[in-house]
């Protein structure tokens, strides 16, 4: 599967959260897109070192994010119903504009590789 891109204005930046015994970290950034008569909100997860890269952006910045869709199956035990989760994992971003007219800057931060994050999270502490 190839990586995809999405762009929008940064609507929300959450604090970094840590999960599991190995300290898996993730940070949610929500982009806002105007789609005619409604607003679309796109949640993206930055993980591990990518959490620190988010410090370079602020609410109101216009960014383009390269992301990968990840799916996960989770089941508490063999008698429980299986749950399926989908998330958009941010791999890198490029600052397009900052709401203050500084468009065109080409800051790019690369977060991390592949799906290592799920391997690091404790199975009891699902990182979603």
Automatic annotation (TrEMBL):
Residues 117-128 have a biased composition (Acidic residues). InterPro entries: DUF3127. Residues 104-128 are annotated as: Disordered. This is DUF3127 domain-containing protein. It comes from Novipirellula rosea. The lineage of its organism: Bacteria, Pseudomonadati, Planctomycetota, Planctomycetia, Pirellulales.
